[in-house]
Write a structure and sequence with these properties.
- By secondary structure, the protein is an alpha/beta fold.
- The protein has one domain: Type I PLP-dependent aspartate aminotransferase-like (Major domain) (Aspartate Aminotransferase, domain 2).
- Helix content is about 40%, strand content about 15%.
- Helix 8 links the parallel strand 5 and strand 6.
- Helix 3 runs parallel beside helix 10, helix 4 runs parallel beside helix 5 and helix 4 packs across helix 9.
- It binds pyridoxal-5'-phosphate.
- The site of pyridoxal-5'-phosphate has 13 residues, from helix 4.
Length: about 300
């Protein structure tokens, strides 16, 4: 299967490990294992007796139940655990998209959201966000392009790279537009939980739409990209379908990753507070430097 080069990842591969100052990192400063344990106060003695077998295939009950706590309406049967959000997005697309399907990809976004559908042979239409619309989807334009034959809308909220967060009432309207075509919505929610003001969590697509598929991970909101642990949340039929595809590519995630991920999500309030403090501090430095409102809206 031919696929376009993943440009941002190639760029990172080239520069990120020797850069003295990395201003391009997309995660909040990572936690060490010691920091995670200190912050959570977790007793980890039980892990040393664990046999290093494959573990729970779709994710441990403990982890899936922790992931459910990030949503308002998801149960364990609605979750499958993946190799990062990158693995989650790929599995969703490989499971739901077929050649000649019409795919709307809202851009700018993470390149997976248009290059994978294109490599599958789908007809990908790019829907451009605009700076003068605060990088939020223009609903009139969106309802013009989402026609009866649209199979899936691929989007990312909060958005990388713009930082824009779709307000909850606007997300509901996007769902109404998708419903007219009975289209799926894949919403990459890897930054969900880091909104700067009010509730750090915006609504999740999986909680408000039966055909909404949410992908998330420990990389950004939890500062644990090294665990390489993500998930998919969606209705149980979609998850069953995805798990059929997943048997060929994952088996299970590492049991140590599953274990530390559970601890992290169980302590989400502490980690998110730490991260929001860091984000606010970084933002204040930028604001001082620019001495003006940033041109892009930050999450
Ligand atoms: C929008 C978006 N989705 C997915 C990913 C991949 O995340 P993960 O490290 O969980 O695989 C990234 C990484 O930068 C991202 O920015």
């Amino acid at each position: 299967m031919k696929i376009d080069n993943f440009k941002v990842e190639e760029w990172f591969n080239k520069y990120e490990h020797w850069a003295k100052y990395d201003l391009a990192d997309t995660c909040v400063e990572s936690l060490s294992v010691n920091e995670l344990l200190a912050l959570s106060g977790a007793d980890v003695t039980d892990i040393f007796n664990r046999k290093l077998n494959y573990g729970a295939i779709h994710g441990s009950d403990r982890l899936k139940s922790a992931i459910c706590s990030l949503y308002s309406a998801q149960k364990q049967e609605n979750i499958t655990v993946t190799h990062g959000a990158i693995g989650a997005n790929q599995l969703v697309m490989l499971s739901l998209i077929e050649p000649n399907d019409k795919v709307i990809s809202i851009v700018p976004t993470y390149q997976q959201h248009y290059s994978i559908p294109k490599s599958i042979g789908a007809n990908v239409e790019l829907f451009f966000l605009k700076e003068d619309e605060n990088w939020l989807p223009n609903l009139d334009r969106l309802s013009e392009v989402v026609g009866g034959d649209t199979k899936i809308i691929c989007m990312n909220n909060p958005n990388n790279p713009t930082g824009a967060v779709i307000p909850d009432d606007m997300l509901k309207k996007i769902v109404e537009i998708a419903q007219k075509s009975n289209a799926y919505i894949l919403c990459d929610e890897v930054y969900r939980g880091l909104n700067h003001s009010g509730n750090p969590f915006s609504d999740s697509i999986a909680d408000i739409y039966d055909k909404g598929v949410s992908t998330g991970s420990l990389s950004k909101t939890f500062s644990l990209a090294g665990l390489r642990l993500g998930w998919i949340a969606a209705n149980a039929d979609i998850i069953d379908n995805i798990n059929r595809q997943r048997e060929y590519n994952t088996i299970s995630v590492g049991i140590l990753d599953d274990y530390f991920a559970s601890i992290a999500i169980e302590n989400k309030d502490k980690i998110i507070k730490r991260n929001l403090d860091k984000i606010k501090f970084g933002k204040s430095i930028l604001m001082d430097l620019a001495n003006q409102e940033p041109r892009v809206q930050c999450i």
